[in-house]
Structures are given as C-alpha cells and as structure tokens.
Amino acid sequence: MSDAQPRARRELTVAVLLSALAGALALSSSSQPWADVTVTREAPLPPTSEVLTGGQAAPLVGACGLLLLAAAVAVIAVRGAGRLVVGLVVAVAGGVLAWSGLRGVTGGLDLDAGDVSSAVGLGRAQVTSDPVVGWAALALVAGVLAVLAGLLVVLRGRSWPGMARRYERAGAPTPGAAAPAPARPRRPESPEDRHQAAWKALDRGDDPTL
After folding, report:
1. Cα–Cα distance between 153 and 209 in angstroms, integer?
2. Would residue 39 count as lying in a domain?
3. pTM of this prediction?
C-alpha cells in the first residue's frame, strides 16, 4: 500500500509526458515537407513541381497534435470516467497519426492536382510524388507514443491522483483525516473580569447595574 501512491504518480507523469511529446512531434511534422510532387500537365504546358507539407498532405496530423497537447492537461484535470474518455481519445488520435505517418513513409498518400496550388484550374494533370520519409516517420513515431499513452490512461488511469483534490472545500471532512481538536472550555468569570466589564460599560455610557 505504501508504494501505491508514488507508483500512480509516476504512471501519471509518464502518460502526460508521452501525450505532450507526441503532440509536439506531430505539430513539428505537420509543418515540414512530406512529399516532392511533380504535376505533368497537358501539352504545351511544362510539368511543375512542388513540395507538400504534412499539413497539406495529411491535414489530420496537425489537428491530432493539438488534441494531444490538450489531452496532456486534461489527464491531470479529470478523474474517473472522464479520464477513461480522455485515454480513449488519445489512443484514437495516436492511431490516426500512425496511419497517416505510415502512408507518408510508404508513398501511399492520395494526392491529386488540387493538392498542388500551382496546378489548380489547369485541366487534367497527372500527379506523381516522391515521399520525404523522415518527417512522415516522425508522425508515425508520434502516433505510436500517443497510442501507448492512451492505453496507459485507459488501463491504469482510474487509480491516479487528480487536480480536483486541491480544490475541494477546506471545511469538508476528508476520509481518513484526523478530527479537529476540540475547543478549549471557557474559564469561569472572576471578580476581576466583572470589575473590568463594569468599567468598560461606563466608558460606553451604559449603566453596569442594569
């Protein structure tokens, strides 16, 4: 029992760090190049080339990154069933990230002329792409980390402490806490106390004999 609370805090810290790290990696990956795209247009127009970022090639990567950063805070702020829901959301976001990263690494992204700004409105065109593996692989790693964080929250999160304990009413009794010390009994009034009370009444303009 003595090791249960430190272990729970360590697990909570690991889950928060994994979720935050996964979110940061996903946001970094989304702003970097994922594919070198070549658009072959109808003659006599020459082919064009452009670089697509992760946010253009896989828009959900950036959204999942923001979600994971928010979830890192939510894991601390909620408890019970709410924490279970957060864990499921983190795991799903990790799955989306991993799938998007895997498609970027293997060149399986679905790209068309509409994804390349310079080719819009130029009629039919053939799009070919060469993946930039490094940044897509970073999203894949972020997805794996997020899935691990989500599973940890789902499986172990109910036993972790939460922020809500700090905001409970100060007057509310806490289970297992020591009872407040009883107030000291008031000592009997002495003749000196009555004498001082009479002088204070005269100072206020009251009649101490009433």
Report:
1. 74
2. yes
3. 0.66
